[in-house]
Amino acid sequence: AGTGTPKHFIDIGDFNAGELKAILERARNLKRTRRTPEAEKPLAGKVLAMIFERPSTRTRVSFDVGMRELGGETITLTGAEMQLGRGETISDTARVLSRYVDAIMIRMLDHNAVRELADAATVPVINGLTKMSHPCQIMADIMTFEEHRGPIRGKTIAWTGDANNVLGSWIQAAPRFGFKLNIATPEELAPRREIIAAAQREGADVTWSADPYHAAAAADCVVTDCWVSMGDEDAGRRHNLLKAYQVNKQLMSAANSDALFMHCLPAHRGEEVTDEVMDGPQSVVFDEAENRLHAQKGVLAWCFGV
Ligand code: CP
Ligand code: NVA
């Protein structure tokens, strides 16, 4: 268990630009030295508990591998196999786990419950996706954009589709990294006005419209995600509303000719994105998936203060 205030990683909005950039700088260094004699193992002897209330491929494997590459170990738990599933409170769970492990990564839809866990824990807590945000994803996304196109400051990112957790973290990143964010969603699935207003108050250039072509115009990157996120209901209605927001060749041609395509994955080919775009020359989705590993090693190093 740690001493002092633990360094949690819950939301991009909890950080200032300098801190986020320092985490990414560390991530780039860790990527560069991976599997070389220079590779650092600063987390030797440390244990990360990973709690998954929902399924995961990337988050689960990249945190596990990342922790091991930094010299540490992991324990993976699912909500159902913990007493959490039988009514033990989140704060009691946090206090108990803090006596055993050195950090906790959690994927749980209830964002407030993750905050509660962090408040009660005496070790760092990392958000591995809630209904509101997916901060680790956006760190990897920005790292990926910058690897391909240089500094993201002043660039235009277009989001088309549902206003979900991934978009929530993009919105918080906009004022901190200084990129323009054009959002297109159906009116009925639009992001909450307060979320955009908050980013604008922090100086971000964030726009919303119902027109994906408007959003994609002059974009340096087009981003989308699934139409039905974990915990969403009424899949049929969402599919109907979101059809026009598919990223296909036509929509990509509305963006800059060298625009990247990003998707956090898993993708639903033929729904939010066509095979042609997913597998096309503008797509960097697998670099993005790889960078989850490197970005999160940067996050882990920050949380552990090493
Ligand atoms: N992008 C992402 O978080 O993927 P997983 O759900 O597989 O972890
Ligand atoms: N928006 C998706 C992301 C999955 C990684 C979901 O919440 O299901």
Automatic annotation (TrEMBL):
Residues at which carbamoyl phosphate binds: 56-59, 83, 107, 134-137, 264-265, 292
Residue ranges annotated for the Aspartate/ornithine carbamoyltransferase carbamoyl-P binding domain, each copy included: 7-147
Compartments it resides in: Cytoplasm
The EC number(s) this enzyme carries: 2.1.3.3
Aspartate/ornithine carbamoyltransferase Asp/Orn-binding domain mapped to chain residues: 154-303
GO molecular function, one term: amino acid binding
Reactions listed under catalytic activity: carbamoyl phosphate + L-ornithine = L-citrulline + phosphate + H(+)
Highest taxon of source: Bacteria
Primary location group: cytoplasm
CC terms in the record's Gene Ontology section: cytoplasm
Pathway in which this enzyme or protein is active: Amino-acid biosynthesis; L-arginine biosynthesis; L-arginine from L-ornithine and carbamoyl phosphate: step 1/3
This protein's record includes keyword Transmembrane helix: no
UniProtKB keywords: Cytoplasm, Transferase
Annotated residues for binding of L-ornithine: 165, 225, 229-230
InterPro entries given in the database record: Asp/Orn_carbamoyltranf_P-bd, Asp/Orn_carbamoylTrfase, Asp/Orn_carbamoylTrfase_sf, Asp_carbamoyltransf_Asp/Orn-bd, Orn/put_carbamltrans, OTCase_ArgI
GO terms, biological process: citrulline biosynthetic process; L-arginine biosynthetic process via ornithine
Pfam families found in the cross-reference section: OTCace, OTCace_N
Annotated PANTHER family: ORNITHINE CARBAMOYLTRANSFERASE, MITOCHONDRIAL, ORNITHINE TRANSCARBAMYLASE, MITOCHONDRIAL
Family, as annotated: Belongs to the aspartate/ornithine carbamoyltransferase superfamily. OTCase family.
Matches recorded under HAMAP family: OTCase
Function: Reversibly catalyzes the transfer of the carbamoyl group from carbamoyl phosphate (CP) to the N(epsilon) atom of ornithine (ORN) to produce L-citrulline.
Name the UniProt record assigns to this protein: Ornithine carbamoyltransferase
